[in-house]
Every structure is written in structure tokens, then in C-alpha cells.
Design a protein that fits this description.
The protein has 302 residues and is an alpha/beta fold. It has 3 domains: 10-87, Winged helix-like DNA-binding domain superfamily/Winged helix DNA-binding domain (Arc Repressor Mutant, subunit A), CATH 1.10.10.10; 97-163 and 265-301, Periplasmic binding protein-like II (D-Maltodextrin-Binding Protein, domain 2), CATH 3.40.190.10; 164-264, Periplasmic binding protein-like II (D-Maltodextrin-Binding Protein, domain 2, 3-Layer(aba) Sandwich). The protein contains 10 helices and 10 strands. The strands form 2 sheets. Strands 3, 4, 5, 6, 7, 8, 9 and 10 form an 8-stranded mixed β-sheet that branches. Strands 1-2 form a two-stranded antiparallel sheet. α5 links the parallel β3 (96-102) and β4. The longest helix is centred in the last third of the chain and has 24 residues, at 278-301.
């Protein structure tokens, strides 16, 4: 008689779910209270039962395969059912952990206050915010939601634009009084430009902004957008800054206003099943509502 394939053991399936969310065996082991070898053994058991790889190693950690995505969906349904069994049907659907990866500026201005307000409404929700200014990953293991600059090119994922903004030029009045006010984009060649370290830029849209401008004298460059703001405010040169940061800083004024701007947009990306997760859906809604309120306040103040 033919033998049926072994059923995936429940502890292996839930261990896999933890690795899929955190991206690392060691992180999952810490959360689950087991050692690294136990996590490895359980993942191997799951792959044996399912007949294929559910995880693949990348430079950024363990990523979920197509077979693994099916296992994630099933594991999340089991997790929700067990929670309902223990806590009852009236438990808040928005609970557990949600991990969001986003650039520093977005996190500071939009994401942190939005998540603070969300947790007031859903105190059983834990939120982890990861700082990252990078291209979208093809597999989103380790995070539930990614905020990226520019329209993402992704497969098997949910993506939506959540707000637009622009990079503009800013300087202090003192710098302009000392070094002169550029009248054209070409005249920027006489001013140090404060921006990202070119070799560290991983986002094409941010790199294109610099390519639109003339080469500048040696200047202060940083991987941190907040360092750009502070260096510009200290008089290091003309900063290429997000308008929602530059316009809000009373120490700075726009340069070549109306003559140069680089329009951009933030997009939210989740696994294709992500928006069906109540915590992820609530997180995305809280972000978009906070941004809309902030933009309305900004327009009303003008």
C-alpha cells in the first residue's frame, strides 16, 4: 500500500512562522525560548514533510520560498485560531506583533506618531520599527510592511502609494548671504551640496536627484537624512532635503524655489496575503490616515 506523506508537525510549522517573520534562526530561537539547533531541526522536519525548501538563505537573512509562502498563510490561520480559542471571540483582532521597515525621515515624521496612536486604540499590538533606506526586497521575511521610496518592482506582493513629496534645495540665510544666492541650477556648482554618500545609495530614485545637479565642491555627505538637515542648518552648504523636513525647519529657506525639485513618493509593500492580516491592515490604515491629517494641517497653516 502507498504511504502518505507525513503531516507537518505543529511545533515545526510555528517555528517556521517565527523565522519567516524575523528572518533569522537566532532571533526566532530567542523569541521561542529554544536553541538554534532546535530551530534548525524543526525547519528541516517541516521541509521533509512538505517535500521542498520553505526558506532560502540570503545576505539579509532567511527568505521565504514560494512553498514557504503557502506554509506562512496556513501557520497564520492556525495562530489566529489558537488565539481565538484561548482569548475568546471578543478579543481584539488587532494584536500580536507588526514589524515595519521604513526610511528614517518617514519613520520620524509619519510612522512613529501613527503607530503611537494605533497602540492607544489597540494596546495588545506590539510594534517594531526598523530603519532602512533601501530597495524593496523580493521576499519580505522578517518584516510585515516595508515603506520604500519610488514605485517598487515586486512579484507576489501588495504595493500601494501612500504619499508623495519632493526633494528640494535648502540653505540658511547666513550661508546665502555669505556665499551668494544661486540664480540657476548651473550656479549650484559653486556651492557644496549636502546629501547622501554616493557609494552608499541603494535607491535609484534618490541617486537620480543628484545626477540632475552639477558637480559640487567637496562637501559634508552622510548616510543619515537627519545629518543632512543638521549639516545644512550649520552652514555646510546647500542641502538636498525632503520638503516635509526642510519646510518645517525654521533655520532653513528654500533655494531655487520653483526652478528645481525632484518629485518622489513613498510606497508601502507587504506580502500578498499581508493586507488580510488585521494587524497589518490596521497599521497601513493608521499610516495613511496620519499622513492625510498631517498634510491637511500643513495646507491649513499656509
Amino acid at each position: 500500500m502507498p504511504t502518505s506523506a507525513p503531516e507537518p508537525p505543529l511545533d515545526a510549522l510555528m517555528t517556521f512562522l517565527s523565522v519567516a517573520r524575523l528572518g533569522r534562526y537566532t532571533a526566532a530561537a530567542e523569541v521561542l525560548g529554544v536553541n538554534h539547533s532546535t530551530v534548525s531541526r524543526r525547519i528541516a522536519a517541516l521541509e521533509s514533510a512538505m517535500g521542498g525548501r520553505v526558506l532560502v538563505r540570503t545576505t539579509g537573512g532567511w527568505e521565504v520560498t514560494s512553498l514557504g509562502r503557502r506554509a506562512v498563510a496556513i501557520a497564520e490561520r492556525i495562530e489566529a485560531s489558537v488565539r481565538e480559542l484561548v482569548q475568546g471571540e471578543d478579543t481584539d483582532a488587532v494584536h500580536g506583533m507588526v514589524r515595519v521597515s521604513a526610511p528614517d525621515a518617514f519613520t520620524s515624521v509619519f510612522l512613529a506618531p501613527a503607530m503611537t496612536a494605533l497602540r492607544r486604540e489597540h494596546p495588545q499590538l506590539a510594534v517594531e520599527l526598523l530603519s532602512a533606506t533601501q530597495r524593496v526586497r523580493q521576499n519580505r521575511s522578517g518584516v510585515d510592511l516595508e515603506i520604500v521610496v519610488g514605485r517598487p518592482q515586486v512579484l507576489r506582493a501588495y504595493a500601494t502609494q501612500i504619499c508623495s513629496y519632493a526633494l528640494r534645495l535648502y540653505a540658511t540665510p547666513e550661508h546665502l548671504a555669505s556665499e551668494g544666492v544661486p540664480a540657476t541650477v548651473a550656479e549650484l556648482s559653486g556651492h557644496p551640496l549636502v546629501y547622501y554618500v554616493e557609494s552608499s545609495l541603494q535607491v535609484d530614485e534618490l541617486d537620480r536627484a543628484l545626477q540632475e545637479l552639477p558637480a559640487s565642491p567637496p562637501s559634508v555627505r552622510s548616510t543619515s537624512v537627519f545629518a543632512h538637515v543638521e549639516a545644512t542648518a550649520a552652514g555646510a552648504g546647500i542641502g538636498i532635503l525632503p520638503d516635509f523636513l526642510g519646510d518645517a525647519d525654521p533655520r532653513l529657506v528654500r533655494v531655487l524655489d520653483g526652478a528645481w525639485a525632484h518629485p518622489l513618493a513613498y510606497w508601502a509593500v507587504a506580502r500578498d496575503e499581508g493586507p488580510r492580516n488585521p494587524a497589518v491592515a490596521a497599521t497601513l490604515q493608521a499610516i495613511t490616515e496620519h499622513i492625510a491629517a498631517a498634510q491637511n494641517d500643513s495646507e491649513g497653516a499656509r
